[in-house]
């Protein structure tokens, strides 16, 4: 590029419209506006082609941990690139994937002892589903082929991960392509599907309903897929304390494998390294991605217990091999960055900082409690959802076509904040290393935008 003139913002915007099809985006709307073109990042900030700075309120789709373009991670990436960019795990072992797997098992909940790599959250979930089913085949229960999942679940966009999804607007179109799963009520207390609303007094009626489903389908159940503690894309639905533990107990009672999807919650987001730690739960299978590589490169893994792994051992001809694997499985560049990221957690005392920022976020959210159009505030660590409603008394939602959430985020840009909503829920999901002042800036921007769009 040295002798070539840098494209102008207008050129980049025009080429984006001409060539790029954006995900989860109505392109007709996209084409109608001038879009921000990001060219750089620094700490919690994204910088556009005109030099404007935006606080990255969604950690670049919930991935960023230590901040953008972090010197230590840049160095780890460059050092590894100078040695080896990629070699396959099909038939070869790799230094970086070995070291990372060892480290992941050290920090994972006790009992998870094997790491199967893939390259994004959806595939980590797919691996979990296939692994669970094949495990039952090998242990003499091939009829266990069905999965339980929660209402409003989101586990990715591939056919298998969508099959365990429960968000109508995303998944209904594809229903004819999906395999059928069993939907359990979500512990979404504000709009409780059991009509209860108060976890302190309801005795967790949603767990009773889950148990009934387990009894009804017991013979056929392979596993229960769920996000622990917080259903992210479902609307930042923070689960009541004890729900996860209750699910673990039911899974044990009915021989159902518990598959936790920590793609969004893993790597410190909830205030512990993994969300399941809050309730002392070890899943049978755990999917991780996003924060694993600190937002640098696509990397994912599915962790399994020794019991699951052992069921796949056998003579070659028995066909117990786990027939799954992606081209970029265990990519050395990504593994090297992930390893360095895990060191940085310790070097920078990031977990303590996340806990402080989470308390600060609680206080900042409280300022919105009396807002006439804030129906429900939900928080889990350094993640939160602000559910906007048309009528607070009746909880009547704004019609989705009014795009209130999208409009709040558009308005927030005028205050230097980038966010991305989930329907009428405004999302707070900043880089974990966000500073005290930056968090204030983020919440101020969102508050002004909420006021402007709900007035
Ligand atoms: N699982 C959860 C909980 C997620 O939040 C996501 C993405 O947002 C996924 C899975 C899918 O991950 P990916 O987009 O990397 O395929």
Automatic annotation (TrEMBL):
- Write out the residues that bind pyridoxal 5'-phosphate: 121-122, 261, 326-327
The cofactors required by this protein are:
pyridoxal 5'-phosphate
Q: Which PROSITE patterns match?
A: AA_TRANSFER_CLASS_3
Residues reported to bind substrate: 154, 290, 325, 420
Subcellular location(s) of the protein: Cytoplasm
CDD domains reported in the protein's UniProt record: OAT_like
Q: One GO term of the cellular component aspect? A: cytoplasm
Reactions catalysed: (8S)-8-amino-7-oxononanoate + S-adenosyl-L-methionine = S-adenosyl-4-methylsulfanyl-2-oxobutanoate + (7R,8S)-7,8-diammoniononanoate
Note the NCBIfam families from the entry.
bioA (TIGR00508)
Task: State the oligomer form and interacting partners.
Answer: Homodimer.
Stated role: Catalyzes the transfer of the alpha-amino group from S-adenosyl-L-methionine (SAM) to 7-keto-8-aminopelargonic acid (KAPA) to form 7,8-diaminopelargonic acid (DAPA). It is the only aminotransferase known to utilize SAM as an amino donor.
Instruction: Report what the protein is called.
Output: Adenosylmethionine-8-amino-7-oxononanoate aminotransferase
Native species of this protein? Trichlorobacter thiogenes
| Lineage start | Bacteria, Pseudomonadati, Thermodesulfobacteriota, Desulfuromonadia, Geobacterales
Which gene is this protein's source? bioA
